[in-house]
Design a protein that fits this description.
The chain has 24 helices and eleven strands. It has 445 residues and is an alpha+beta fold. It has a domain of 231 residues: Orthogonal Bundle (Hypothetical protein af1432). Strands 3-4-7-8 form a four-stranded mixed beta sheet. α3 packs antiparallel against α5, α18 crosses α19 and α20 packs antiparallel against α24. It is globular and about 80 Å long. The N and C termini lie far apart (77 Å).
């Protein structure tokens, strides 16, 4: 086929050189990713973060394609044996890279929590179901090719090099979303020297390693990832919108069984999920637009809570928040009670959200599960784990970073309270006495 090129702000040219890849991109299950935002509610904090999972998936494919080319030129299995790259693995690797996010739904993580879906398992299901266009395209390669691609995503594929290119602590997926999310949020936190990393990466019998001479480029990547999580992915306002969405979907779930005709009329594509009886066809019918349309209709509901939460989400009215510690956790029931006194049902207008991440994890013998370590390789072939070689990485490795927050309506803040809430002044003042500089504190006795 004649090479197909997709223009991209991150990678400039994304080159499609194999007809199977182009067919996969044109499949309806992949085109659906155009209608799902990569960062969900983050676009309500960073207004230009409107990019889709479609663009990200193409980016992961392109990084993987470049790595395969580099491995073929420099580390062919014929020259390096078990430490080399077998280019017969190229197509399964590229397909897995392209399709790795196929199972994401709208506002993925919030939706998953309410309706008990799993995007990784659904990705595997889409690839292996004989009813999907994706599966039919992959079967053109061989009858068992869909299962091979799915096993890469499930991390059971026997070639560790292939698996780690798609899923490890420094993989094509993470490298693309850090650069892409930094670009579209208008921030610099996620930038790192991708060109340098793609020059120092190499295959090894244990998986993927990096030349020790490229350690500083890997350090830069680790720090960028840490900053993106702290400043972008864990942003309290984005999480405040997630909590509104979470409570909105929960309210719909709670109302459904007593008012099925209403939801059949206003949100028929969501009914299988409200009823907890959905199949793959139902799931693939969902995108951001389906949920947004439902929220518009729900905003006119006779149920005051469903209507109000819908309006808060559509009009970007996030819940406010305050951090809490082990010592102040005991105060949360009292604060929830004050929210109730002001007239808000605490089940739908308060929430606890914890966001923690390991900037980099190293092997711990006491843990039953460990992430794949980043290994550096010396010229003589000796390996050294990244945090053992890097003081910078060692300083932030192995410790979870993040916070725990208590979320509540904006109306509970004295500075935001309108005349409508003057009757609740005592409760609101008591609530605010427990807050200082965005933290929950113990009141002075």
């Amino acid at each position: 086929m004649i090479e197909k090129v997709f223009r991209d702000p991150i990678h400039h040219d994304i080159k499609v050189e194999h007809p199977i890849i182009l067919e996969l991109i044109n499949a309806k299950e992949f085109q659906r990713l155009r209608r799902i935002k990569q960062l969900g509610t983050t676009s309500l904090t960073f207004h230009t973060a409107e990019h889709s999972r479609f663009g990200h998936s193409l980016g992961v494919y392109e990084i993987t394609r470049r790595i395969c080319n580099y491995f073929k030129r420099n580390y062919d299995v014929l020259d390096y044996g078990e430490d080399g790259w077998d280019d017969s693995e190229r197509l399964v690797t590229l397909c897995a890279a392209l399709l790795h996010d196929l199972g994401h739904g709208p506002f993925s993580h919030t939706f998953e929590a309410i309706f008990k879906t799993n995007h990784e398992q659904i990705t595997v299901d889409i690839i292996t179901s004989s009813k999907t266009e994706i599966n039919q395209i992959l079967r053109q390669v061989s009858e068992d090719f869909p299962e091979k691609v799915a096993s890469v995503i499930a991390k059971t594929y026997p070639n560790k090099q292939v698996v780690q290119l798609i899923s490890s602590q420094i993989d094509a997926d993470r490298m693309d979303y850090l650069l892409r999310d930094a670009y579209f949020t208008g921030t610099e936190y996620g930038t790192f020297d991708l060109t340098r990393i793609l020059r120092v990466i190499r295959p090894h019998k244990s998986g993927i390693v990096f030349k020790v001479s490229g350690m500083h480029a890997v350090e830069d990547y680790i720090v960028s990832r840490y900053q993106m999580y702290m400043q972008i992915y864990f942003h309290p306002v984005s999480r405040g919108m997630e909590m509104v969405l979470d409570r909105l979907l929960q309210r719909a779930q709670d109302l459904y069984h007593d008012n099925k005709p209403y939801f059949n009329k206003t949100s028929p594509l969501l009914v299988p999920f409200l009823a907890h009886d959905f199949d793959l066809v139902d799931y693939l019918a969902l995108d951001d637009g389906v949920l947004t349309t439902a929220f518009h209709l729900w905003s006119q509901s006779d149920d005051a809570i469903l209507s109000d939460l819908s309006k808060r989400f559509l009009n970007r009215v996030p819940f406010k928040s305050a951090t809490f510690s082990k010592e102040t956790f005991i105060l949360l029931p009292e604060l929830q009670e004050l929210v109730e006194k002001v007239g808000f049902d605490e089940r739908y207008y308060t929430a606890i959200n914890s966001s923690f991440d390991l900037p980099y994890d190293f092997y711990k013998p006491e843990k039953s599960q460990n992430k794949t370590q980043i290994e550096l390789i010396y010229p003589d072939g000796e390996l050294i784990e990244l945090s053992s070689a890097s003081e910078l990485v060692r300083a932030i490795a192995g410790e979870t970073k993040g916070d725990q927050r208590f979320y509540f309506p904006d109306e509970m803040l004295a500075s935001s309270t309108s005349d409508n809430y003057t009757l609740f002044e005592d409760s609101i003042n008591s609530f605010n006495d427990s807050l200082k500089n965005g933290e929950i504190i113990k009141k002075d006795v």
